[in-house]
Write a structure and sequence with these properties.
Elements (H helix, E strand, L loop, with lengths): L1 E9 L16 H13 L6 E2 L8 E11 L5 H8 L7 E9 L10 E11 L12 E3 L5 H9 L3 E4 L14 E12 L2 E8 L6 H14 L6 H8 L14 E8 L6 E5 L3 E6 L3 H4 L1 E9 L1 H17 L4 E6 L18 E2 L2 E2 L1 E12 L11 E4 L5 H11 L21 E7 L2 E11 L2 E9 L8 H15 L4 E7 L3 H10 L2 E13 L2
Parallel strand pairs: 3-10, 5-6, 13-14, 21-22
Antiparallel strand pairs: 1-3, 1-4, 2-3, 5-9, 5-10, 7-8, 8-9, 11-12, 12-13, 14-23, 15-16, 17-22, 17-23, 18-19, 19-20, 20-21
Helix pairs in contact: 3-4
Length: 493
């Protein structure tokens, strides 16, 4: 059994959309019939984007499974002999059997074309929407700016849409005018049912002057389809391309006036772990955000997701928890994993160590070495090492050091300024060099550096789940001070 991926272009004028229907001709039906005849077996395609009736495509994607041994790259050429002239296979290739066109991270790009003149042009009638009223493109651009980013697009979803989650991310939304043709080009992580056409209909209202540009933000906030403009006709819409993610992004951010979060994914491949930091979120959106982003991490390969709600520890003290232990958030149940706390001590006038450990600032060119060391050292706590600056020179942003014994890198330490304190943000020793007193010696070096720079205190951040680190700091004279963040964990069974 093989899975073949097809890239398809079609004129949707004569079809009732992509998805198979009993009483109408669709793209899916025509493809299934042609492929079954070509391959000599019953074929059923799986499409990436189920375009509506009358919508066109330059690069839609579909897959099908077959036992036929025809060369994958020749299938598109052979298939076109069985297809009508308004459907063409542009490319074909073999992919993994578990590759699914709707379950991969993908950026979709659509164009909506508006012919803006007094009299329609017959040659454009099938591929654009004709608008008689003059459109103010600059005002349309102003309105479009409110839609860029991650938002709840419930107002821009047709009522019979089946999506349970209406949050989507728009990466870009541009309007270009060439002569009488206005082209709205939009790229995003995915789109709800009729979403692009409702956006087009709403921006046309802005262009005519029915809505001021700022009303688009009010429509977003309403989360009600009745607040938005009409659904523009399908014939103006074309699926331009689908760009599949070739490498998992290290970090995904979501930011708007209702929420702000980071999903850190760099440990998924090596450790199966992802870390979600919710910086702020309106209460009404919290459960949905937790479910949505955890599910995204799981789909991206995470077997365990750590979550921190920073509102819970605002002001440095643990507050009311919005993550409830044992509560089911969709498929996910979270349990308290650990707290990240600060410990501190007064910097001594002199600090001695009996071991040869040197702090060597890590140069910017040594980023790869830093990441490799961090991966070897930090196994139980979130690995944020790759985000830390690797330039020398202590500043508020911090400084990363290699710990060397007799010239050999044995660990790493990150120091930063925090008021009158020097803060140890990270300290780790490679496993084979532990239990030799090297971490204690590194703390002594940091304390000496603090006194040299006129700082009164030494602080550190540590996980309560890291007993060896807690013991190290307490042995060196640190005392527990505040809870910085509280972490919960979901673990795949």
């Amino acid at each position: 059994m093989r899975r073949i991926k097809l890239v398809l272009a079609y004129d949707g004028t004569n079809y009732s959309g992509w998805q198979f229907q009993k009483n109408a001709v669709t793209i899916e039906e025509v493809l299934n019939k042609a492929l079954s005849q070509l391959m000599g077996e019953e074929i059923s395609v799986i499409g990436a984007s189920r375009t509506d009736a009358g919508v066109h495509a330059l690069e839609n994607v579909a897959v099908f499974d077959t036992d036929n041994r025809m060369a994958a790259d020749k299938i598109c050429l052979a298939l076109n002999q069985w297809l009508p002239e308004d459907i063409r296979a542009l490319n074909s290739e073999e992919v993994a059997l578990d590759w699914h066109p709707r379950k991969q991270n993908c950026t979709k790009t659509y164009e909506y074309r508006i012919l803006n003149r007094k009299i329609n042009m017959p040659t454009q009638r099938l591929y654009s929407y004709f608008c008689y009223f003059p459109l103010d493109v600059e005002k349309m651009r102003e309105g479009a700016a409110y839609l860029i980013g991650e938002h709840d697009f419930k107002s821009f979803c047709a009522p019979r849409g089946q999506a349970e989650e209406t949050v989507r991310t728009i990466y870009s939304l541009e309007l270009d005018k060439q002569g009488d043709m206005i082209t709205l080009r939009i790229s995003g992580s995915g789109f709800l049912y009729n979403m692009v056409r409702i956006i087009a209909g709403t921006l046309i209202k802005v262009g005519i002057g029915v809505y001021p540009p700022e009303h688009v933000e009010e429509i977003l906030d309403a989360r009600d389809r009745r607040a938005a403009g009409p659904t523009a006709p399908a014939k103006g819409l074309t699926l331009v391309r689908m760009e599949y993610e070739k490498q998992l992004r290290e970090k995904i951010t979501g930011e708007n006036k209702d929420w702000s979060y980071e999903l850190i994914q760099r440990d998924i491949a090596a450790k199966g772990r992802a870390y979600l930091v919710i910086r702020r979120c309106a209460d009404r959106d919290f459960d949905r955000l937790l479910l949505r982003v955890t599910h995204q991490a799981m789909r991206n390969g995470a077997r365990q997701v750590y979550v921190c709600d920073q509102r819970q520890t605002s002001g440095g003290e643990a507050g009311t928890a919005r993550i409830v232990e044992g509560k089911a958030y969709g498929y996910y149940v979270f349990h308290h994993a650990y707290d990240w706390i600060t410990v501190g001590k007064t910097a001594r006038a002199s600090a001695e160590d009996a071991y040869t450990v040197s702090l060597c600032p890590a140069a910017g060119t040594e980023t790869a070495v830093c990441r490799e060391l961090a991966s070897r050292i930090f196994k139980a706590a979130p690995d944020f090492a790759a985000e830390w600056e690797t330039e020398s020179g202590l500043r508020d942003g911090g400084e990363l050091y290699f710990l060397r014994e007799n010239g050999v890198p044995v660990g790493m330490m990150r120091l930063s300024l925090c008021g009158d304190s020097m803060r140890v943000d990270l300290l780790g020793i490679i496993e084979e060099y532990r239990r030799k007193g090297l971490a204690m010696a590194a703390l002594a070096q940091a304390e000496r550096l603090a006194k040299t720079r006129g700082l009164a205190r030494l602080q550190a951040g540590v996980s309560t789940g890291n007993e060896p680190a807690l013991c190290l700091y307490e042995k060196y004279g640190f005392r527990r001070e505040t809870v910085v963040s509280r972490w919960y964990s979901w673990l795949s069974e």
